Amino acid sequence: MARLPAANDGEANALFSDVKIIDTEFAFYGPVAFDLGLFTAHMLVALLAARAHGAKAAYERYLRVQLRTFWREFVQRYDQLWRDAGESVHDATCRPSFVGGVDALVAVQAAHAQSTLADALGFASLEMIRRVVGIAHADDVDGIIDDAQRIVVEKRILRVGMRLLADTASFRSIDRVLELVDAIIQE
Q1: Residue 177 pLDDT > 90, yes or no?
Q2: pLDDT for 155-174, tens place per residue?
Q3: Per-residue confidence at 109, pLDDT binned at 50, 70, 90?
Q4: What gap in Å lies between CA 30 and CA 55, rounded to an integer?
Q5: CA 92 to CA 86: how far, in whole Å?
Q6: What does the pLDDT read at residue 22?
Q7: 2-5/11-14 β-pairing
Q8: What mean pLDDT comes out for the span 123-135?
Q9: DSSP per-residue letters across the chain
């Protein structure tokens, strides 16, 4: 058994065979938008790098459909869980009998979904930028053999990331984000 110094006045003992180090990306408890943002970032990076790998248009369409489906299903499932929770908890914001009725509840849910999307896009933008300028790069980008093509893809990823970061709230849907991707690809 090895003895490790503790952060306090005492000592801590640990068996090195039992020590586990977990990357915070995989052991993070925080806002749901963090996970949504990481997934969105990686899908956007894959989309921006697809042509440089010789992907067919069908693969790009597939990525777009998957990203749209992901967001649509997330919002629908989240809203359903919210409504179901109202039947079993005492939180008035969950109940269909919410002050103002069902219409008010739907409006609150829509505003929350919009806020979650904006937060997720903020996380996505930082993840996209980090995957280009940070230590942990994206295989979708590093796997591009041609240096000139890789640089073009990296610039596109950075442009999308910076635009999302600068004005997350203006992107009111994932379709708007995909329009940005298309515009940057066309530049």
Answers
A1: yes
A2: 999 999 999 999 998 999 99
A3: confident
A4: 35
A5: 7
A6: 62
A7: antiparallel
A8: 95
A9: -EEEE-SSSSEEEE-GGG-----GGGS--S-HHHHHHHHHHHHHHHHHHHGGGT--HHHHHHHHHHHHHHHHHHHHHHHHHHHHHHTTS--TTTSTT-TTHHHHHHHHHHHHHHHHHHHHHHHHHHHHHHHHHSSS--HHHHT---HHHHHHHHHHHHHHHHHHHH-GGG--SHHHHHHHHHHHHH-
For 11-43, what is the HEC assignment? EEEECHHHCCCCCHHHCCCCCHHHHHHHHHHHH
pTM: 0.80
Distance CA 20, CA 130 (A): 25
Residues 111-142: b if buried by 16+ CB within 10 A, e if exposed: eebeebbbbbbbbbbbbbbebbeeeeebebbe
Proportion of the chain above pLDDT 90, given as a percent: 56
